[in-house]
Design a protein that fits this description.
The radius of gyration is 12 Å and the shape is globular. The chain is built from two helices and two strands; from the N terminus they run ααββ. Strands 1-2 form a two-stranded antiparallel sheet. The chain has 65 residues and is of the alpha+beta class. This is MarR family transcriptional regulator.
């Protein structure tokens, strides 16, 4: 099963509504996944200048640590 986080491309900013439309899942389910990914450190919350609301983008994870 793919999650909404799998659909996110590095360097792109997404709103929960955009991800819900992309994955066909409900907005609330996407928000729940983003919240758990935020706590896990896989996603970070950002703001976009001139736009309202929260945007999320994937964090670059260094696997060679």
């Amino acid at each position: 099963m793919t999650t909404s986080i799998d659909q996110m491309r590095p360097g792109m900013k997404y709103t929960p509504q955009m991800l819900a439309k992309q994955t066909g899942m409900s907005v609330n389910k996407v928000k729940g996944e983003l919240k758990s990914a935020l706590m896990g450190g896989f996603v970070e919350e950002t703001k976009v200048k001139g736009q309202r609301g929260k945007y999320y983008e994937t964090k670059q994870i260094d696997i060679f640590n």
